[in-house]
């Protein structure tokens, strides 16, 4: 073989599930995503900087100097490169990439173990004959690394395209051909059989020695951000301790409460009330932090800013919820910590008048997961490495823009992961729809030119959103948002138009889960002049307009549930026109006798007109079939998205 043979190589890194989805806290989710990205970067750098042959990265974009820097941009977990050399060189390059990926993970593991033992005084179960730490913390066992190669057999774009197709087929086949390690001994033969399981996912045993109620052990729990009874396996400990600063991870409580804080700021005399909250928390911050009752929130910084976007109340803000505060008072009373108890009682006294003036904060927030549609088709249409690099560059540009977009004052969200066409973030309820729409438009715009060059339609963007309680385990929320994203892409049934859609799942603390799906854009033929609510709007824009009616208290909060009763009334009617007429009359009757949410004023005529027109528009969009079920579900979802103060669920 000639030394100047040209190859395409691929290195896939996983498993994504173990690194990302196994999580109880925002920190676990964020650092799992970050760790997988940094491991992928290490492999990409090793391939790009290989000394024994010429290499050229295609995915990720190595032309951008920031792409491979730590903490800058997330990198997807598949690396593609062009290599010049013989088969042995190709094998060595893949081997080098794998080794550097394992070494990077080993660094994270060593950092976490060192901090646990030396900085925090954590006792690990690492003295058994069968070392439980080593059994869980070996990078060779933790990482799935699949390397493949395809030789470019002829010059020009045709040879490149044919090699790329073979590489993709081989990569898929390799990932489906699992490596199985030697079968383990019988479980009860192991010295750690019967140990408590990790609280992150329940799959592996704890690596922590027993932590009891002694003062030292309480401090350890606070430092590890562990609740009572919580256990961590090796990777769980890495997620808690390998990061630089635990305060950079925004808790769900701070995301959920943000609309309430903004509402207070905008209210008459609201700045005074907000200052009272801030002063009370800052005055006693040290004591509350030591007691594990509160955490700082310093992350999510905009460029060139010293503080994060939550500086108005730079704490997790959980104590501003009555239920959380009352539970904290109960626990502190049991522990007989008189100083902290007095602080919490005074805080509660301050909050009583604020809750009365501004309502109580809503304990729900949104998690968003998005993915580009038909990216495989666009990549397949690329006939040369130049086109593939252009696609890679566009994806890099988009991913790099996502965190800053999320931080905008209009959205105040926190990006957890943005790599390629994948996005995972948390957002307040009142901004998540608009943020999703901006990301969708940015994604399509970023890829439009390269798609035009390849004579392809620009890829679209499917978004899944979960509305979840702030105390719901983050792992469950992560699984539900994956379900929502799949619903956005596939629809409820086979006849639904796939992809280019938004799906929302509401996961209430009590009550049944509910789902909603809408296409981002309406067929232009269905658009028509109309009222404020539905004039020239897509289904998603209409949902946002409905949510605004609830947010502005122009609709009673229980209206959606009364619409459900109408659905039961007309459900069995055979005459579609008759069912529609009765439903519209009932809707008008209900709204005419209802007051606006939280007030004594009647629902105004324009709002009633908008709501009826919206239901009629839904019928036109549904081929003249009246579907009151979709109308009431949309109102229920809009009510959740419009929540700003009152506690729900």
Automatic annotation (TrEMBL):
The keyword Protein transport does not apply. This is Type III-B CRISPR-associated protein Cas10/Cmr2. Residues 156-199, 518-538 are annotated as: Disordered. It comes from Candidatus Electrothrix aestuarii. InterPro entries: Cas10-Cmr2_palm2 (IPR054767), Cas10/Csm1_subtype-III-A (IPR052117), Cmr2_N (IPR038242), CRISPR-assoc_Cmr2_N (IPR024615), CRISPR-assoc_prot_Cmr2 (IPR013407), GGDEF_dom (IPR000160), Rev_trsase/Diguanyl_cyclase (IPR043128). Residues 363-507 form the GGDEF domain. It holds the Pfam family Cmr2_N. The keyword Nucleotide-binding applies. Residues 156-171 have a biased composition (Basic and acidic residues). NCBIfam families: cas_TM1794_Cmr2. Keywords: Antiviral defense, Nucleotide-binding. PANTHER family: CRISPR SYSTEM SINGLE-STRAND-SPECIFIC DEOXYRIBONUCLEASE CAS10/CSM1 (SUBTYPE III-A) (PTHR36528), CRISPR SYSTEM SINGLE-STRAND-SPECIFIC DEOXYRIBONUCLEASE CAS10_CSM1 (SUBTYPE III-A) (PTHR36528:SF1). One of its GO terms (biological process) is defense response to virus. GO terms for molecular function: nucleotide binding.
